[in-house]
Design brief:
Layout lengths: L4 H32 L4 H29 L1 H19 L5 H22 L3 H4 L3 H33 L4 H17 L16 H14 L1 H31 L5 H21 L9 H19 L4 H29 L5 H20 L2 H8 L1 H18 L1 H10 L12 H10 L3
Length: 419
């Protein structure tokens, strides 16, 4: 894969961006909120809720512009907007200022994920190669997840928590330069409905929700990230109050999680072809819930480390699987908006538990609340398997259309085929 110059540059951009992003989020945003500003679970919850909402908005905007301009231009602009926000976060002294900047960081950072997740169909139209590209790009992101939190922990120990955002700024600059040299062809689309961004956005929603294979993939992805929602408010407190360890352990343990992510991304290319399906995604979602339980089910650091690797393996295989199914079932001119829909469904899935996680943590404890979230995800995912098999029988592939077809004609063709 990496012998292809364009793929190599996309992989480099994804890797560098996520090194900075994972360090800035886990050690910077989480670490400073819990350890520098000493905020409780309820405050962490509304801070994370605001970040999720801002990321949803960023993904919505990104999806429309990816389909207009291609993922390359969107990635470059998003990285360059992330850079000054990261630099500003280095010098914040007040939590009241830190929170809106963290929300802005989420808004400008979300398009980097959406654009990175949309490159594969622009790099190849071959289905098997599509799966390998997604696994390679996501593997690079997973490898970055190993290095980013560990590097963030080292930076914190050497120069303090705010310095992590300097790492993010440097990473954004390098990722933008790498994306600049990517060469892709963006098909010119005719639009009978005009160029209004909101119309394009709603058309993207119509396609995402009207194709059963896309709908199941997006909603199941939301379920997986629902399991992450409680962690947004409670994971820093799990380390601080349950495990009684310092902020650097958030970085070290998420590095172990990242090791699992890499192994999972490699595992995807070795899974049987029948797993590249809606039922396969349902099974992986159930395993994601069980993996979360393995991660937080003990107070022994060795067991937590092992559980983080196990959970990482499952998520590492699930992410590129989900992305491959989205690419396989999306008309080409809708890839950005479908991926954007999946991205803000991910953020919405993370939002829901934030409303109740702090209250449940006060009543039952941080660890018990996190375990219950994993159990709930596993049960719901298993319950969706009959739907997954029904989707599989109807055919996973959406109707392909010519790149020059008007948007309303695309939607009409999808509807005519009854998919």
């Amino acid at each position: 894969m990496l012998s292809d110059r364009n793929i190599a540059l996309v992989v480099l951009a994804r890797f560098v961006s996520r090194v900075g992003g994972s360090a800035a989020f886990f050690v910077g945003v989480w670490g400073m909120a819990a350890y520098t500003f000493h905020q409780p679970a309820s405050t962490l919850a509304w801070m994370m809720a605001g970040m999720s909402l801002s990321e949803i908005a960023g993904s919505m905007v990104a999806g429309v512009f990816i389909d207009r301009l291609g993922p390359r231009k969107v990635l470059i602009v998003a990285e360059m907007l992330t850079l000054p926000v990261a630099v500003t976060l280095m010098f914040v002294q007040s939590f009241a200022v830190f929170v809106p900047l963290a929300w802005l960081f989420g808004f400008v950072g979300a398009p980097t994920f959406t654009a990175g997740a949309s490159f594969a169909p622009y790099l190849s139209s071959d289905n098997e190669r599509l799966q390998k590209i997604n696994a390679t790009v996501e593997g690079a992101g997973s490898l970055a997840f190993i290095i980013g939190p560990a590097l963030g922990a080292l930076v914190v120990q050497a120069w303090g928590a705010p310095s992590v955002f300097g790492l993010m700024a440097a990473a954004s600059a390098i990722a933008a330069i790498a994306a600049w040299f990517v060469v892709i062809e963006v098909p010119v689309r005719r639009r009978e409905s005009g160029h209004h961004p909101f119309r394009e956005f709603t058309n993207g929603l119509r396609v995402s929700y009207s194709v059963p294979a896309l709908r199941y993939t997006i909603l199941t992805g939301s379920l997986v990230w629902f399991g992450f929602g409680a962690f947004g408010a409670l994971e820093p407190l799990f380390y601080r109050d349950v495990l009684n360890v310092g902020v650097q352990w958030i970085g070290w343990m998420n590095t172990m999680f990242g090791l699992g992510l890499v192994c999972g991304a490699v595992l995807l290319s070795r899974l049987p072809k029948r797993m590249i399906s809606a039922p396969g995604l349902g099974v992986m979602a159930a395993l994601a819930g069980l993996g979360a339980i393995a991660y937080v089910g003990s107070t022994n650091l060795w067991v937590v480390a092992f559980g983080s690797v196990v959970w990482g393996v499952v998520i590492g295989a699930t992410e590129p699987l989900l992305r491959t199914l989205l690419h396989l079932n999306s008309p080409h001119e809708y890839v950005g908006r479908v991926v954007g829909t999946a991205q803000y469904h991910k953020n919405a899935g993370e939002l829901l538990p934030l409303a109740v996680a702090p209250t449940l943590a006060l009543a039952f404890g941080v660890q018990a609340t996190l375990i219950a979230g994993g159990v709930l995800v596993a049960i719901i995912a298993l319950a969706t398997l009959p739907i997954a098999f029904s989707v599989d029988r109807r055919g996973l592939r959406a109707v392909r259309v010519l790149p020059t077809a008007p948007e309303d004609e695309v939607i009409a063709r999808l509807g005519d085929k009854g998919v």
